[in-house]
Specification:
heterotrimer; A: about 180 residues; B: flat
Chain lengths: ~180, ~120, ~400
């Protein structure tokens, strides 16, 4: 049990470091790469907690999501100067202070709530891998079926929206 | 942790292996002279022009974001495929196929729409 | 990784050995590739250095190591150096999760005045309960080393190559994931060992509530999932960035794609990554569709111990337990079966590369999104419906 705790906290420290670097790196591409590391660390923590399938999803979907950011950043190469200006200004300083306040609130709130969770929910003994995924599948397709189907519709809406936005000006080869 | 630790150890081992090899190669490799022209990026002999604006087709962005959407849908089929046999064994085979058929219909409609809107065509 | 010193040591050595095996198979594959391409194109190929040109590999290694270091002046050195190292990780991690043979059971024994065991060692770097998801997740990271290389070089061609490579990889990942859904539907598990065990007997399936056994065919996935197998294999070609899908490094348009600026050992590391992906792809094909390390009716986890029984008896005379030796020997025998099947698929990879011409980029994306993805979807639906009809108890 002590080793579990050590593993969890060392992963958490790495995770926080990478997350910090994600927002503090001045080069957007470096930011995106740190975000990949953050996602991987998160997947490792999920795995550590017995949510194996979620960990896999974290790797597959979120790594892909970062890829989109990557491409976006490369497309915004021209805006390098503007991005720099934004990160070193009075206004962005104000935004940073506000964001720090929100973050502090979130941390305090989650810390308060997590105590409650630990008290009420018994830490279930997780079985290895496939069984948890099975339970997840059975729950997903029985109890949460409607949410699941709605999610499919939501993804469809997003797909349609993306294509619509990309074709807004001058077709798919819009002038920027 | 017992299952994750070997993965981390192997990843670390590969990184160390790679770094040591790179270091070793840099030790015994031939030392060339530094030259601003030689150290330029290779762009077929012309003076390199990378600093200018890079224009990238929006298709890449479209591909990437559509990938995420379809990938999420496919990922949601994984637990379905995993529990399919159990649902059938419990006598709920038609239910689980029906439950998925709506999701699949949305998936197919999305794919059909992407093809129809020519969003995935590169010319 | 284990509970005592012996187990940890063996597990670590196993991991290192499998990794070194992967690295060592690369020069061998390069040799096969060169000789094979020469054979296909009616040439000789490398035949001067050593017998059959085999020591050409050593000469190459020395040359790789002594090449001059080059970093593009305007690149990002850290990313530039990190990319080739990162290129090796996804393939190695994915290959580590695939079982190469049956687990070895070691009975309790005494050594250094201490009682050890009993142990059970999986014939793979590590056992992952959700093997398929793990492999998919890890190999989805492969695109990042290309992007790092492309961006780190700060070269237009490298950047375009990287972008193309990532777009191609993610496009084909969809068809890959969807064809794997068919496999999961068929076997009902994420675990590779369970999948292999399900294929280690004669063909057996339930037809409308009755068990049917076909004694002349092995229970391989290929007989249930022929379309899925073809789609998965084609998608794997795209994932490895090999011809006919080698658009990222299209020499005629992009110089050499994302590794334009790489030379010497750094370039070689990209090669290790690429061939590692080939290995993973072949291993997945073997495990999903061709019975993994079993070859019914000749070699299965049940029959192998009988075949090696005599040798194990003889080896048992030198120490350890006869049962332990039987387990070790039969595991290695089955590993031989796996390696043979793997070699077959690796050869198909090489064969295809030197036979088919390259796609154009729009054809490539068209194939991935508008042909393979719908076909993979069709395969999934068909599998689900057929499984429902076959396995459901309609009389109830």
């Amino acid at each position: 049990m002590i080793w579990e705790a050590i593993g969890f906290y060392s992963l958490a420290i790495f995770l926080i470091y990478f997350a910090y670097k994600t927002i503090s790196a001045t080069n957007p591409v470096h930011s995106a790469l740190y975000l990949v590391l953050t996602m991987m660390g998160l997947a490792a923590i999920f795995y550590n907690l017995g949510a194996h399938f979620i960990a896999g999803v974290q790797m597959i979907v979120y790594a892909g999501a970062v890829m989109v950011l990557f491409v976006m950043v490369l497309m915004l190469f021209d805006l390098k100067a503007e991005i720099r200006a934004f990160t070193r200004g009075m206004f962005s300083g104000l935004v940073k202070v506000m964001a720090a306040g929100v973050l502090a609130g979130l941390v305090i709130g989650s810390a308060k709530n997590s105590v409650v969770v630990v008290e009420t929910g018994a830490p279930g003994q997780m079985q290895a891998g496939v069984d948890v995924s099975r339970q997840l599948g059975i729950l997903l397709y029985t109890k949460y079926l409607y949410a699941f189907e709605l999610l499919g519709v939501l993804l469809l809406v997003v797909a349609v929206g993306v294509v619509a936005v990309s074709r807004m000006k001058g077709g798919t080869h819009a002038q920027r | 942790m017992s299952q994750l630790l070997p993965v981390l150890v192997l990843a670390l081992f590969v990184i160390i292996f790679g770094v040591v090899l790179l270091w070793f190669a840099s030790l015994i490799s031939e030392k060339g002279r530094k030259d601003p022209v030689k150290d330029e990026t290779y762009e077929c002999g012309l003076p390199s022009d990378t600093s200018g604006p890079t224009k990238i087709s929006i298709k890449f962005y479209l591909t990437a974001i559509l990938f995420i959407l379809f990938d999420i849908e496919i990922i949601f089929m994984f637990p379905w495929a995993l529990t399919y046999g159990e649902f059938i064994a419990a006598g709920h085979g038609l239910y689980i196929l029906g439950a998925m058929s709506f999701f699949l219909a949305v998936f197919i409609f999305g794919l059909f729409w992407e093809v129809k809107s020519r969003a995935l065509e590169w010319e | 990784m284990g509970t005592d010193a012996f187990e940890i040591t063996v597990n670590f050595l196993k991991m290192v050995l499998i990794f070194l095996m992967m690295v060592q198979i690369v020069p061998l594959l390069v040799w096969v590739e060169r000789r094979g391409s020469a054979f296909i194109q009616n040439r000789f190929g490398p035949n001067r250095v050593g017998p059959l040109g085999l020591t050409q590999l050593l000469a190459d290694a020395v040359k790789f190591l002594t090449k001059e270091e080059f970093i593009p002046a305007r690149g990002y050195p850290f990313l530039f150096y990190a990319a080739p190292v990162v290129a090796m990780i996804p393939a190695v991690l994915a290959f580590g999760a695939i079982p190469l043979s049956m687990p070895i059971a070691v009975e309790a024994f005494e050594m250094f005045g201490h009682q050890w065991g009993p142990y059970s060692f999986a014939f793979q770097s590590y056992e992952i309960g959700i093997g398929i998801v793990f492999v998919l997740g890890v190999s989805s990271l492969a695109a990042f080393s290309m992007l790092m290389a492309g961006y780190g070089s700060n070269n237009k061609f490298a950047l375009y190559g990287a972008l193309r490579a990532s777009a191609q990889t993610i496009s084909y990942e969809l068809a890959m994931g969807l064809s794997i859904v068919g496999v999961i539907l068929l076997f009902g598990t994420f675990n590779f060992l369970d999948i292999v065990n399900a294929q280690s007997g004669p063909m057996q399936f339930s037809l409308l509530g009755q068990q049917v056994t076909l004694g002349f065919l092995p229970n391989w996935g290929i007989f249930y999932q022929p379309l899925g197998a073809v789609i998965l294999f084609a998608a794997m070609f795209a994932e490895t960035n090999r011809l006919p899908f080698d658009l990222p490094e299209a020499e005629s348009e992009l110089v050499a794609g994302y590794h334009t600026e790489y030379a010497g050992f750094k370039f070689n590391m990209f090669f290790i990554g690429e061939y590692g992906h080939m290995l993973v792809a072949s291993a997945l094909m073997v495990t999903f569709y061709f019975g993994g390390y079993t070859l019914w009716p000749f070699l299965t986890p049940e029959t192998a111990p009988k075949l090696v029984g005599g040798l194990a008896q003889w080896m048992g005379g030198f120490g350890f337990n006869v049962n332990t030796w039987t387990s070790v020997l039969s595991a290695f025998l089955l590993h031989g079966v796996f390696v043979l099947k793997l070699a077959l698929f690796l050869w198909i990879f090489i064969w295809v590369r030197w036979t088919l011409p390259r796609f154009r980029y729009d054809q490539l994306m068209d194939l991935g999104w508008r042909k393979m993805l719908p076909w993979a979807l069709f395969n999934t639906i068909l599998t689900a419906v057929v499984i429902l009809i076959m396995r459901n108890n309609w009389s109830a």
